[in-house]
TrEMBL record:
It comes from the Bacteria. Residues 3-124 form the Response regulatory domain. This is Stage 0 sporulation protein A homolog. It comes from [Ruminococcus] torques. Residues 134-233 form the HTH LytTR-type domain. InterPro entries: CheY-like_superfamily, LytR-like, LytTR_DNA-bd_dom, Sig_transdc_resp-reg_receiver. Keywords: Phosphoprotein. The keyword rRNA processing does not apply. The modification 4-aspartylphosphate is found at D59. SUPFAM superfamilies: CheY-like. May play the central regulatory role in sporulation. It may be an element of the effector pathway responsible for the activation of sporulation genes in response to nutritional stress. Spo0A may act in concert with spo0H (a sigma factor) to control the expression of some genes that are critical to the sporulation process. GO terms for molecular function: DNA binding; phosphorelay response regulator activity.
Length: 243
């Protein structure tokens, strides 16, 4: 069940957006549950109490708060890096601060059904039809991790280190095997020893990428052009071939 939060201080717009989301989910055969908030402070309080959502549709300017403040709560306070944020705004330009929270999309007011459907269709294309579980074996035991929570893999001899949002682990195997298992799931081979999850890259910096947790991952010289192509492909809503 996909959980979606809508936050706009105009109740009519909030209800309209919720209706468009529900209609879009029916069209796209997405099983979803939508909850609306007309207060950013109320939404933040609910998040601090332990609630979470997979997608947030946030008005940038709220009467009692801002979309930036709510985004900061999502990313930096409750540490949810997997959730996708869609900003809704009546302005033509966007504050550069917004990009620090890695928004999934922007919707301009006045919006219509097609805009909302296109956003959810893109989300479903990227995240909804993938197997989100990565299985690995260590010793005689099998383990699993959600792909959406994996930051990167690092090859270390005969072992592979797996770095997740809240923990780390390792298993016997090769990075090549991991690449094959996760083909088409948004992973980028930046270096012969590193396979990173694109959604957790904070920014690219010359011959390295900086992850959301601050880890610095090297980029091989021969991979820079290919990675730039992948970055553009991902930003346009698709996954590059091969990884």
């Amino acid at each position: 069940m996909l959980k979606i939060a809508v936050c706009d201080d105009d109740e009519k717009i909030c209800n309209l957006l919720e209706n468009y989301i529900n209609d879009s989910c029916r069209i796209l055969h997405i099983e979803a549950e939508t909850e609306s908030f007309i207060s950013g402070k109320v939404l933040k309080r609910k998040l601090r109490e332990g609630e979470n959502y997979q997608i947030y549709f946030l008005d940038i300017e709220l009467a009692d708060d801002t979309g930036i403040s709510v985004s900061d709560c999502i990313r930096n306070e409750i540490k949810d890096e997997a959730a996708q944020i869609v900003y809704v705004s009546g302005k033509d330009g966007y504050d550069r601060q917004l990009f620090a929270f890695r928004p999934f999309n922007f919707i301009e007011k006045p919006f219509d059904q097609n805009m909302v459907t296109a956003t959810l269709e893109k989300y479903n294309r990227i995240y909804g039809k993938k197997n989100d579980i990565f299985h690995y074996k260590y010793g005689h035991d099998m383990y699993c991790a959600r792909v959406s929570e994996i930051l990167y893999f690092k090859s270390n001899g005969r072992k592979v280190k797996i770095v997740m949002q809240k923990s780390e682990d390792e298993f016997y195997g090769s990075l090549e095997e991991v690449c094959d298992k996760l083909k088409g799931q948004g992973m980028i081979l930046t270096h012969k020893s590193y396979l990173v999850n694109y959604r957790y890259i904070k920014f690219f910096q010359g011959e390295q990428v900086i992850m959301v947790n601050g880890d610095v991952i090297p980029v091989a010289r021969g991979r820079k052009e290919e990675i730039a192509r992948m970055q553009l492909h991902f930003e346009n809503g698709g996954f590059a071939h091969g990884v």
